[in-house]
Amino acid sequence: MTRFFRRLFSAIVMWAIALYVIFSQNEVVFLLLIGSLGLAGLGEYLAMLRRANRPALPRLAWVLGVAYYVGLTACYHYHPSVSIDDFEGILGAVFFFAAFMWYVRKPADETIPLESVANTLFGLAYTVWLFGFLTKLVYLYPRDAERHTIGQFYVLYLVLVAKFSDMGAYLVGSRLGRHRMVPHISPAKTWEGFAGSLVFALFGSYLLVYLLPNDFARLGWVHPAILGIVIGLAAVVGDLSESLIKRNMNVKDSGSALPGIGGILDLIDSLLFAAPVLYFYLKFFVP
User: Fold this and answer.
1) How many CB atoms sit inside 10 A of residue 138's CB?
2) Could you report the per-residue pLDDT of 119-136, keeping only the tens digit for each?
3) Cα–Cα distance between 183 and 230 in angstroms, integer?
4) pLDDT tens by residue, 146-166
5) Which of 82, 182, 208, 216 is deepest in the core (most CB within 10 A)?
6) Is the pLDDT of residue 235 over 90?
7) Closest among 224, 214, 241, 208 to 281, alpha carbons compared
């Protein structure tokens, strides 16, 4: 019960900050919030590597992580003519160039270059790049008549549907869970909880389309059903993916920044795969 109240307090504080930033329509602060969470997730991943004695290139990871969020914001906000694909390709090329140049200057028997490069690249892709799709969602649709972005409401929709999925998995799984889903990764996950996550995500999707601004009318009645299911699935995969990483690193939580929850990665894990799913679905299927 004590853990539950700590978790509830952390969730309320985080939601109060997020909702204030979203509805204030302060574009810069909202992008700073996204970047801060993504970089905090990268920091926790690098810390887990360090505790597990896994090689990595933390300084290069930090430089490229900051550069990614700064560059992504600059491309969308100040230079919309710049291709995001080109920008991401440039950063990818810089990463490999810098990583291998770092190891060229050292004797091969004193380092583990391939493992270091792989660990660092995976961490950047898993935390910084995947979470960066929230920034892409902000700018997916044109601005309104007052030049405000409307994409932040799709970010809010994503977060709430993903958290509905988490809540359904917890409530149904803790009450009715009998058949373990993937005990070798997360012993507490059950198929009953998985079903509950999809039902809650579907309910949350329709509820939010009804409650959020009129721009969501474009989703109609079919898209919320599909999005509820696919976001629910992606949220479960994101949760299991982080569980797999933590098990491999032999840690219980990714960090201790949020009492009752754990680390930032424990908070955003369900969003890491759900964000690109929503982005590409809206881009290709919703005008």
Assistant:
1) 23
2) 999 999 999 999 999 999
3) 23
4) 778 888 889 989 988 998 898
5) 208
6) yes
7) 224
